[in-house]
Write a structure and sequence with these properties.
Blueprint: H1 9-19, H2 24-31, H3 35-49, H4 54-217, H5 222-242, H6 251-260, H7 273-276, H8 284-290, H9 293-307, H10 314-324, H11 345-360, H12 371-380, H13 388-407
Helix pairs in contact: 1-2, 1-3, 1-4, 2-3, 5-6, 5-11, 5-13, 6-10, 9-10, 10-11, 11-12, 11-13, 12-13
Length: 411
């Protein structure tokens, strides 16, 4: 401690803590000493400072701190003043050196300007000489280029005239060949149109016979065939609008679907009347016989395709529909257990159309369903019985299906 304030370190800490406003107990706790020790230090502090109370001791402590602070501040100010003098001297020395450098730079700059001026004069003179030489060279080059251009132009003109004459000869020969080819094509086209007309007429008669046979032997009503035909077309058009199966759903192909749909159950002509017209549910053995109508239908239509020599393709589509419309997307259908896109697209469309109409229609062995229940059932079979995309198309066209069913209702 400073002179006149010779407290021990612990006494100083006690007095400083009391000066911060702590109680005697708080000071003892803060310094981790006993209350008895704190009181002992207080007596020693009163004695050394010649005071009789805590307030007088704190007053003297604060006065002492102020004196110490002033002494330290005075010392710091003296140090700062000394540093300022040193910086001032250094700045004067720097200013002198800077002045010397400025004078030297001015002299050097003047010398450089004189040299630069001379260099510019020499450069200008050289540029003028070079420009003149370049002008003379360019003039000579232009004359040479012009002469070359004239020579090339004459050569090209001569060559072009020869090429034109050759091309005229070639065009004349080509026109003669085109005329001959056009005559051949026209003759062939007339012959093909005649042949196609005969095939179309044969196919139309064959389709009419097959349709009549299908309607006569079907255990469903004739309106079932009409309704399913229109369902198929509506589904195909919606799929095309959705952008699904674009390549397979041209306008021509959709028309073939429409024409072929009535033949989906043509194979029922090979099913015995006792099964086909049974007034009730079929037993297991009878059901196995009924399921053969898909295979029979495919065979009948394959023979028809041979008779019409392929035709426009409607018989080919009908074969796919008749043979595959009882197959299921998950592979659990019949007769071949085909799965997914192994099943032809027209058959996948026909499958949904056929089921919708069967559920909506009254049969001896079942009552007709409501449209809402049929829609719910078909939605539940998405990805199981039916192609998911075909179900999506149906959900967009369900109102149209109901309209078709109402228009061609069974009386």
């Amino acid at each position: 401690m400073t002179a006149g304030f010779n407290l021990t370190k612990q006494e100083y800490c006690v007095l400083s803590s009391l000066n911060d406003g702590l109680s005697v107990k708080a000071v003892a706790k803060k310094l981790n000493i006993s209350l008895h020790t704190v009181n002992g230090h207080m007596k020693s502090i009163y004695f050394k400072l010649n005071v009789k109370s805590r307030g007088e001791a704190q007053h003297k402590f604060n006065a002492h701190k102020a004196v110490v602070a002033n002494v330290e501040l005075s010392f710091q100010n003296k140090e700062k003043a000394k540093r300022v003098d040193e910086l001032a001297i250094a700045n004067v020395e720097k200013a002198d050196r800077a002045a010397e450098l400025v004078i030297a730079n001015v002299e050097l700059s003047f010398q450089n300007k004189e040299k630069a001026k001379r260099v510019d004069e020499l450069a200008i003179a050289n540029v003028e000489k070079a420009d003149r030489a370049a002008e003379l060279i360019i003039a000579n080059d232009e004359k040479a280029d012009r002469a070359a251009e004239l020579v090339i132009a004459n050569v090209e003109l001569s060559f072009q005239n020869k090429e034109k004459a050759k091309r005229v000869d070639e065009l004349a020969i080509a026109n003669v060949e085109k005329a001959d080819r056009a005559a051949e094509l026209e003759s062939a086209l007339l012959g093909r149109k005649s042949a196609n007309m005969k095939v179309y007429q044969t196919e139309s008669k064959f389709l009419a016979c097959l349709n009549a046979l299908a309607m006569a032997r079907d255990n469903e009503t004739g309106n079932h065939i009409l309704r399913t035909q229109h369902y198929v077309k509506k589904l195909a058009l919606r799929l095309k609008e959705m952008g699904s199966y674009k390549i397979k759903l041209s306008d021509e192909m959709i028309e073939l679907f429409f024409k072929a749909a009535p033949l989906h159950d043509i194979g029922k002509v090979g099913i015995p009347d006792s099964i086909l017209h049974k007034p009730g549910r079929l037993n297991d053995e009878e059901w196995q016989v009924m399921k053969t109508h898909a295979t029979i239908g495919r065979a009948i239509l394959a023979s028809a395709e041979l008779e019409t020599q392929g035709g426009s393709g409607v018989i080919t589509v009908a074969i796919q529909i008749a043979g595959d419309h009882h197959e299921k997307w998950d592979g659990s259908g019949y007769p071949s257990g085909l799965k997914g896109e192994e099943i032809s697209l027209p058959a996948r469309i026909m499958a949904l159309a056929d089921v919708y109409d069967a559920l909506m229609s009254k049969r001896i062995y079942k009552a007709e369903w409501s449209h809402e229940d049929v829609v719910s059932e078909i939605a539940s079979q998405r990805g199981k019985h039916f192609d998911p995309l075909v179900v999506d198309a149906f959900m967009m066209e369900k109102a149209g299906f109901l309209a078709i069913h109402s228009k061609y209702t069974d009386d």
